[in-house]
Amino acid sequence: MAKPVSIEVWNPNGKYRVVSTKPMPGTRWINLLVDQDCRVEICTQKKTILSVEDIIALIGDKCDGVIGQLTEDWGETLFAALSRAGGKAFSNMAVGYNNVDVNAANKYGVAVGNTPGVLTETTAELAASLSLSAARRIVEADEFMRAGLYDGWLPNLFVGNLLKGQTVGVIGAGRIGSAYARIMVEGFKMNLIYFDLYQSTRLEKFVTAYGEFLKANGEQPVTWKRASSMDEVLREADLISLHPVLDKTTYHLVNKERLAMMKKEAILINCSRGPVVDEVALVEHLKHNPMFRVGLDVFEDEPYMKPGLAEMKNAIVVPHIASASKWTREGMATLAALNVLGKIKGYPVWGDPNHIEPFLNENAPPPAASPSIVNSKALGLPVSKL
Ligand SMILES: NC(=O)c1ccc[n+]([C@@H]2O[C@H](COP(=O)([O-])OP(=O)(O)OC[C@H]3O[C@@H](n4cnc5c(N)ncnc54)[C@H](O)[C@@H]3O)[C@@H](O)[C@H]2O)c1
Ligand SMILES: O=C(O)[C@H](O)CO
């Protein structure tokens, strides 16, 4: 795209120019920017993934801030272009920001925003959906019905895994990993084993309390265990869900050797980032272990799947939709816009990215702060006292 050919403009005479590389759900995010004297330009180009050149064309000669997407390569070239245009504000419309070279942003004094918290339960619910779909072979059974193959009930038709009393493993018990763990423990009475670099005390207290409730009511209590290593989780769990950030320490965290550690009939779920799993090794493992199942929302080379994965009946694959609920996506757009607006207006940074609810209350003006700036310390940005 040499020059942006399709742009939707709001508040053309606004003092500040904010570019959004994609249309985003809802209109609150636009109104919040327009109300603060921003001209909002939304790229409506049909191209799904914009190139660096496309985005440079969008930035142009004067741009105060950009709202971008996790599919875009935000590094030296784009932050230099934004800086040349006078811009100091960028936000990913995502909580993950592995597509952003934060050191390059620091070099140009550009704030990097992300959207934590608003997608926690939505993502955890999708991971739970994939867990159940894999355990009970829902997709295979649906295809069977639609193919007209059903000719009556049979004792062994699509027999799957019972989750109750089994062990659920979580790798990365942060916001989403903890929310997923609670769903699977409370909803299906599973026992938890988790591995994280940090202790998840709140999650441990929840499982303990729920176990005490069950015991007091004559039921088998649930248990929790903090594993000393990721391998311990892989060996012990019947169902494992991956929720770490993607960085150089988690790239191919699940590889051929670790897949071999897992139970032959285990279920692996990945709603974090595709490169956390060696997908080539995963396809081989699925081929040689027909009772092993996966549920994948993310892929190593999105939008492509590694050869062979699409043919695997023991794999459920969906196109990176874990945060795709209306409320969450509109909230992500709002947080991303407020990150950019906050930097433009010189607001401080919100002090607690785990409690961003005040920014999502549609009946009240948002706090005069940027919800979540990942390089606020590096840029020496003030923290809100609100
Ligand atoms: N598929 C989707 O649509 C979707 C939606 C939301 C988030 N995500 C991904 O999920 C990630 C987690 O989001 P979150 O809000 O829970 O973040 P978070 O920061 O709250 O949790 C991430 C956790 O990973 C842990 N961790 C980091 N390195 C680890 C390692 N080597 N081993 C084990 N644990 C490790 C951290 O300690 C932290 O507790 C995001 O970074 C994003 O990439 C994907
Ligand atoms: O990191 C994220 O937020 C997801 O991948 C998209 O919602």
From TrEMBL:
GO terms for molecular function: glyoxylate reductase (NADPH) activity; hydroxypyruvate reductase (NADH) activity; NAD binding. Its main location: other. Coiled coil: none annotated. Pathway: Photosynthesis; photorespiration; 3-phospho-D-glycerate from glycine: step 3/4. One of its GO terms (cellular component) is cytosol. InterPro entries: D-isomer_2-hydroxyacid_DH (IPR050223), D-isomer_2_OHA_DH_cat_dom (IPR006139), D-isomer_DH_CS1 (IPR029752), D-isomer_DH_NAD-bd (IPR006140), NAD(P)-bd_dom_sf (IPR036291). Residues 130-322 form the D-isomer specific 2-hydroxyacid dehydrogenase NAD-binding domain. Keywords: Glycolate pathway, NAD, Oxidoreductase, Peroxisome, Photorespiration. Residues 31-347 form the D-isomer specific 2-hydroxyacid dehydrogenase catalytic domain. Its EC number is 1.1.1.29. It is found in: Peroxisome. PANTHER family: 2-HYDROXYACID DEHYDROGENASE-RELATED, GLYOXYLATE REDUCTASE 1. Belongs to the D-isomer specific 2-hydroxyacid dehydrogenase family. This is glycerate dehydrogenase. It comes from Dipteronia dyeriana. The lineage of its organism: Eukaryota, Viridiplantae, Streptophyta, Embryophyta, Tracheophyta.
